[in-house]
Amino acid sequence: MEGRGGYAVLKALYAAEKGPRLAVDLGGWVPPSPEGRQDRGRAALECLNAVPYSAAAASAADLAIAPKELQKLAEGSALPLLASNLYLKSNKKPDFLASTRLAEAGGRKIGFFSLVIHDPAKPNTPKHLPNYRLEKESYEAERAVRALRAAGAQLVVGLIAVDAGKEAPHEFYKDFLERLPRIDLLITDEPSLKKPFRAKRAWVAPAGQGMTHAARLGLALDAAGRITGLNWRRLSLDAGKYGEDPALRKLIAVHKAAAAAHFGRKIGTLKEALPLAEAGAYPAADFAADCMRRWARSNAAIIGLSEPAAGFAAGAVTVGDLHKAFPLDSSVVFVKIRGDDLERALAGLNPTEISVSGLKLFLRDSVLERAEGEAGPLVPGRVYHLAVPDSLVSGRDNPVLSSAMEFANSRRPLREVISWCFSRQSSFARPAGGRVIKAEK
Q: What is the pTM assigned to this prediction?
């Protein structure tokens, strides 16, 4: 939705093309922004429908959303969304996504499939994600290619989404293509690829990045549908140069207005500012810990100092302020733990990097000497109920979960818990300090 013109410029550019044409999308429908988290891809799919696109594939980032949300996007799409090697945790392919797509342009049938590659350094390795499973790419690609050829596809195009931060060298694509029946073109969102190259009988080309640039691929084909030449250009989506489609511009304006109204909505009031850090205290984290404890009705709460990214100013607090202060998509986890195990877990967490509610931590030279609850020292055999964000307890050897009697993820986002806290009280003062008491030798 953002960038130099975005979808409105792309549609104007696409409409100006002469001759047979197809628009192809490689996902990224849920951008990592407050607007993206709130919209969950709905605006992007409406824009895809309006261009219109001929093929659209889920990116690695899109798989961060739950299957029910992805299903809603697919059901609102005018064309089937592709994810050829994607399975649910039940080992079934999601029936709301497609493995192949057949389109026509210039009297030719063009077949599309798509793959999400978790790590090009470990090819053909299944990967378990929080909500999905990625199957071996070569196996699923071969099934898709054979199905497309059987359906009459003269040209087969693979849309390759690579996980962010992972680089796919030329050899990855060459080895991949070597194993498979004829594929004519691979288009990838991997940003290190700057220009197309030939790999055996196929071409590999980079896609546009985000909605600031588009990639234009001009294909020369022989009578059998094989590519004899490829003209690739990277085009800046410049509204001044290409103009904007009025209908799409209006659609985008509607979504932007809705987002502005949502993030401008007041959720509460602060009598004093809650900075990220001040004079050895961490008011923003302390406030979040108090909110978690109150919402969960627990004995105590623990939160990492890295959880908040910004503090709050005094006065009205909006939804946008909440997202800026807590940008992570953390949810609250309930934990039951005995007092002696809790004290060991607190030491293992590095007590200089956490804030607490309902607890006092006594440190000497940054090392935990003892911890106390509201009633005094922690009782070794007593069961304590904790609330913690899941970002604090990730990893196999986490000291809290490895020591817990029981734990369960509430699936309630931390931002919602803080918003609930504001809804229960008209205004808040600065939270009490004295939670972490440091002494030197």
A: 0.81
* All structural domains of the chain: 6-260 (3.60.21.10), 266-439 (3.90.780.10)
Tokens of 404: 């817990």
Peptide bond into 377 cis (omega under 30): no
Q: How confident is the model at residue 35 (pLDDT cuts 50, 70, 90)?
A: confident
Answer whether residue 284 shows pLDDT above 50: yes
Question: How does pLDDT run across 63-97, given as a tens digit for each residue?
Answer: 988 899 999 999 989 999 999 999 999 999 999 99
Helix 170-178 to helix 137-150 angle (10° resolution) is 60
Short-list 112, 294, 216, CA closest to 286: 294
| Residue 8 backbone dihedrals phi, psi, to 5 degrees | -65, -40
Q: Decide: 255 and 8 in contact? Cβ < 8 Å.
A: no
**CA pair distance 253, 256, nearest whole angstrom:** 5
DSSP 306: T
CA–CA distances in Å: residue 408 to residues 78, 118, 333: 38, 28, 6
